[in-house]
């Protein structure tokens, strides 16, 4: 059923991207033109110009997919295709994604929206799209072989359903998943409430990103898809520190951050300087009675978490995965721990034999952050990033929440480094240092030093013999 009013509404929305005159009945019957994104920058929120109003999200190093209204239906066009994703300045990965990027664009709709998603497959193999967490008719669930035929290369399928449930969701293939997710095929989906929701607060900033991981050897471009656990690039929206944009907010803003995990391990996501509550999961809004304060929330595989807090403390607050190996970039894992080993002399001898020999970290791995070693093409240092006080020595799943008094409402620009008020930065003690008392009575009373006998002990080993009447099995 299409009224004259709906028709005009549909025609007027196209005004921004496409000339209104281009919209005819014929055009509306065709596929919506696919929109591609070529940069990995964080795009400003897409303010809805048609359909129900809502407060849009900001996708970290990502963007939201524009739609068109076609007789009351919100139409999107996803194109599954090989993409080149810059993971950090100096490192590009050959991934698979949607509409020019990995992850694909965020899809934002409003509770009750009728949604039609065209999916064109430009991959060399079949695919499908599963709408993780949503209530959809079974045949729209996107499990190839189970609920639909796979979308073969070159084909376009149509998914159509009503966005029945409010919440934080994602989409990903349900066809050759191991390959396609290891290659970066995933995207965010947010269904906003259509009216004031008792469990969903108004916020001033609403960020979202997916946790993903890749195994790309330094110097190469394509992820190793067989890797199950030993990934070397731990990323947020296929970006690694220092390539992940900061989350820039105004002081006293209420902030929501939505996080989904499509890696093969859990990530305890940790925020400095503020406590938050988990207000929602992919299962929906969390009842207020079931919320408690946290500074770290574990996001398990296939889960989504929605955290909220008031950003009332000014500063540059670290925001990262708390698994220390996930805040590092690519390197081999076959490196022995050398802390406490004095390489001097040994290194000279080895250097005579192997000119490129390099001593790894005898004081701790922080040395690696400073190490000026030649890197192969297309990789980034394992730990890197410069802060106002020196090397940050981080990588992977690390970013910052930047809270500023004078950040304008709706302004997502990086405000630069925080200017700490005088006398509020940790400083070096320059007075006298006392010898700690415990050094004088080593072990103190609780663990008295035991003198071991100096004499050598002979250990006698007897082999079991078959002389006791036993017969061994
Ligand atoms: Cu992690």
Describe this protein's structure.
- The longest helix is centred in the N-terminal third of the chain and has 10 residues, at 4-13.
- This protein has a domain at 4-210: Cupredoxins -  blue copper proteins (Immunoglobulin-like, Sandwich), CATH 2.60.40.420.
- It has helices spanning 4-13, 25-29, 177-182, 346-353, 366-370, and strands at residues 58-59, 68-70, 73-88, 91-98, 107-110, 114-121, 130-132, 156-162, 167-172, 187-192, 205-214, 233-236, 247-250, 253-261, 267-271, 276-281, 284-285, 293-294, 296-299, 304-311, 315-321, 384-387, 390-394, 398-404.
- The chain is built from five helices and 24 strands.
- It is globular and about 90 Å long.
- It has 473 residues and is mostly beta strands.
- Copper (II) ion binds next to loops.
Can you summarize this structure?
By secondary structure, the protein is mainly beta.
Key features of this structure:
single chain; 473 residues; mainly beta; Immunoglobulin-like; 8-stranded mixed sheet; 5-stranded mixed sheet; 24 strands; globular; disordered C terminus; binds copper (II) ion
DSSP E strands, number? 24
**Mean pLDDT rating:** 85
> SS-based structural class?
mainly beta
| CATH level-1 class of the domain at 4-210 | Mainly Beta
